[in-house]
Amino acid sequence: MPDVTTSPATSQREREIQTPDDALTIIAISLVAGILTNILHEGVGHGLTALLTGADSGVLTTVAWSSVYDSRLVEAGGTLANLVAGLIFWLALRSAKHASGPICYFLLLACAYNLFTGTGYFFFSGVTDFGDWAAVISGLYPHWFWRALLVIVGASSYFAAALVVGIGLVRYVGIPRHEQNRLRKFTIVPYFSAILLAIVAGLLNPLGMQLLWQSALPASAGGQSGLLWLQYYIPRRTEPRRTGEQLTRSYVWIGIAAVLALVYVVVLGRGITLHR
User: Fold this and answer.
1) 149 to 75, 76, 90, 229, 266: CA distances (angstroms)
2) Residue 172 has what pLDDT?
């Protein structure tokens, strides 16, 4: 009779595979990455740029930066901050060879949120003639050419960002392409987490509900939509370079997310005034 005894290491690996990734921890990591992405866009990209280039003060909320001073650079600043941050997080992810699974996943999500927000804004403004880049190209002629250019640049760069994020999810987070259920969980849960965060935080903003529906919600629901389909475009030869450990419940990440979300919604959601 054949020996069917398994080694302790094999048994442990089987138990890990049978244990589903913890959704609450995925949500927590998503919230932290989403909050950071929005602060980089509104606070650093728009707010800090405005204060450094001419604004004496302004109001920062979760949906917008508002000040008397404005310029094309200020309008473009949010997108540029997200694109630079996305590149930095991508490089950090590639270098994090010995980091834990949750850290790698956080770096991947931070990269994804920033790249999708940055590239998505080009496409959004080009199609709707509204938002940051509509303000950037305002007054440039022929106007139809600049809108068409935004659409083309936005669509192509967004698809490229989706490829980058998908490759990173497999290669550096360690989720094999054939594990479709895990890939969906690691992308769809963050997508809806970003939408929920935008809605809850935007409800308290003092600049009016219109900004929530016209800017914050489209930026999340539309801007992060690449998370819903990127898994289908991951190149077939992409292989994991690390073992994709199961994401077990982490009360550290849940605690950090709870504190940040509370401050983000209650404090920044109501708006804070910043001075030069």
Assistant:
1) 17, 15, 26, 24, 39
2) 96
Radius of gyration over every alpha carbon of the chain, rounded to an integer in angstroms: 20
Query: Which residues partner with 60 through β-bridges?
Result: 65, 272
Q: Which residues contact 58 (CB under 8 A, 6 or more apart)?
A: 47, 50, 51, 65, 66, 67, 68, 69, 273, 274
Q: Which residues contact 237 (CB under 8 A, 6 or more apart)?
A: none
What gap in Å lies between CA 257 and CA 262, rounded to an integer?
A: 8
User: In the prediction, which pLDDT does 219 show?
Assistant: 74
Is residue 225 a contact partner of residue 195, using CB atoms and an 8 Å limit? no
121 closest CA partner among 70, 155, 90: 155
Over residues 214-224, the mean pLDDT reads: 79
In DSSP notation, 54-94 reads T-SEEEE-SS-EE-S---HHHHHHHHHHHHHHHHHHHHHHH
Q: What is the DSSP letter of 184?
A: H
Q: What is the pTM of this model?
A: 0.91
Q: Smallest Cα–Cα separation from 182: which of 247, 226, 242, 109? A: 247
- Terminal Cα-to-Cα distance of the chain (whole angstroms): 80
Confidence band (pLDDT; 50, 70, 90) for 97?
confident
Sorted by where each begins, the domain ranges of the chain are 32-275
